[in-house]
Write a structure and sequence with these properties.
Blueprint (H helix, E strand, L loop, with lengths): L6 H4 L16 E2 L11 H9 L14 H11 L6 E4 L1 H13 L6 E4 L5 H9 L3 E4 L18 E5 L11 H10 L5 E4 L20 E6 L12 E5 L1 H11 L9 H12 L1 H24 L3 E2 L6 E5 L5 H10 L2 E2 L12 E4 L3 H13 L11
Parallel strand pairs: 1-11, 3-4, 3-5, 5-6, 6-7
Antiparallel strand pairs: 2-8, 7-8, 9-10, 10-12
Helix pairs in contact: 2-8, 3-8, 4-5, 4-7, 9-11
Bound molecules: pyridoxal-5'-phosphate.
């Protein structure tokens, strides 16, 4: 706290990202990065861009990337917005598309950046409880609101909402913007981008940090009706005209174009997830059904915070949230088969009671 801070800054409650440890020997399963590298074609495109042209500003519209995304999803480039990570895209969405007269709705257990953006932009919000099985019930969102947002699959639970339920939500809320944050959709869900032409109130956000292995480049996107996109462009052009640098634009476009590599690495992560779920259940963990590149698990006989600390001492980091309802869960990112095995090896040494559990 400093006397130079404005009252606004004094009252901000910032988001706390997962740890990025300096030690490279750690098995890092805490921030849902991809265990595989980016597409070799994306790396080659970025290397080719490392030249004298860096003295020039990049294309402020990132048109090359917008077109690659539009081609991939069969939409028009004017339906696409791109930004510096989906966190930045989400920030512009909160700023530009959620109303202040009524509360924004999102689940009680969800991405913890949402309430932070509400604080930053002065947006009132109400949390809507997930059901007993930690699932979103769209019927609970039929109440006055200034917008709706949720990740699909949800984070940190990994649970997926079918497109049919999202359509019911869109129909029930024709006067609100409904944002589906699809950071993890490529690991087991169907994208709601297929619905954007029919629902002008739908905006879908995605990131290249997870399924396209480019967390270090910071690229995110949104797809929706051109009028929603125009609102985001207005905010962006009032804040930072060049959110994506030259390398990010060409690297992200190449990542979208290299479908074969993307599909293969997603398949590998999904196969590893299924295997890890089996191993965790063998050790007595209850594991929520996951359509993401992480699993959310608890052990009936062990305190989750203690488990996370014990794992860390053995060089394996996972994420624990000190939050009501989920205090006894660990969120574990899917690693390579070797990383997952390292986790299981450490857990095995903790001598769990060998009860066989079912998914919740
Ligand atoms: C649900 C969700 N949305 C958005 C993001 C932000 O992703 P990025 O800013 O890396 O694109 C994350 C990151 O973990 C996330 O879990």
């Amino acid at each position: 706290m400093s006397k130079f801070w404005s009252p606004f800054v004094k009252n901000l409650v910032p988001y706390v990202p997962g740890e990025q440890p300096k030690l490279s020997r750690l098995v890092k399963l805490n921030t849902n990065e991809n265990p595989y590298g980016p597409s070799p074609k994306a790396i080659a495109a970025m290397q080719a861009e490392l030249n004298d042209s860096l003295r020039l500003y990049p294309d402020p519209n990132g048109e090359r990337l917008k077109q690659a995304i539009a081609d991939y999803y069969g939409v028009q480039s004017r339906q696409v917005f791109v930004g510096n990570g989906s966190d930045e895209v989400l920030a512009h969405i909160f700023h530009g598309l959620f109303q202040h007269g009524r509360p924004l709705l999102f689940p009680d257990v969800t991405y913890s950046f949402y309430p932070v953006y509400c604080g930053l932009y002065g947006i009132p919000f109400e949390v809507v409880a997930l059901d007993e099985q930690f699932r979103i019930r769209v019927e609970d969102y039929q109440r006055p609101n200034g917008g709706i947002i949720f990740p699909n699959p949800n984070a940190p639970t990994g649970c997926l909402l079918p497109l049919e339920a999202i359509e019911r939500l869109l129909k029930a809320n024709p006067d609100s913007v409904v944002v589906v944050d699809e950071a993890y959709v490529d690991f087991g869900g169907a994208t709601a981008i297929t619905l954007v032409d029919r629902y002008p109130n739908l905006l879908v956000a995605q990131t290249l940090s997870k399924s396209r292995s480019l967390a270090g480049m910071r690229v995110g996107l949104a797809v929706g009706h051109p009028e929603l996109i125009e609102a985001l462009e207005r905010i962006k052009n009032s804040f930072n005209s060049y959110p994506l640098d030259r390398m990010a634009i060409v690297g992200a476009a190449a990542a979208f174009e290299d479908r074969a590599y993307f599909e293969q690495t997603c398949r590998q992560v999904i196969a590893s997830r299924e295997q890890l779920v089996g191993e965790l259940q063998r050790l007595g963990f209850e594991v929520l059904p996951s359509a993401a590149n992480f699993v959310f698990a608890r052990h009936p006989g062990r305190d989750a915070e203690g488990l996370a600390a014990g794992l860390r001492e053995q060089g394996v980091i996972v994420r624990h949230f000190k939050q009501e309802r989920i205090r006894q869960f660990l969120r574990i990112t899917i690693g390579t088969p070797e990383q997952n095995q390292a986790l299981i090896d450490v857990l095995e040494h903790f001598h769990f009671i060998q009860t066989h559990s079912q998914p919740l």
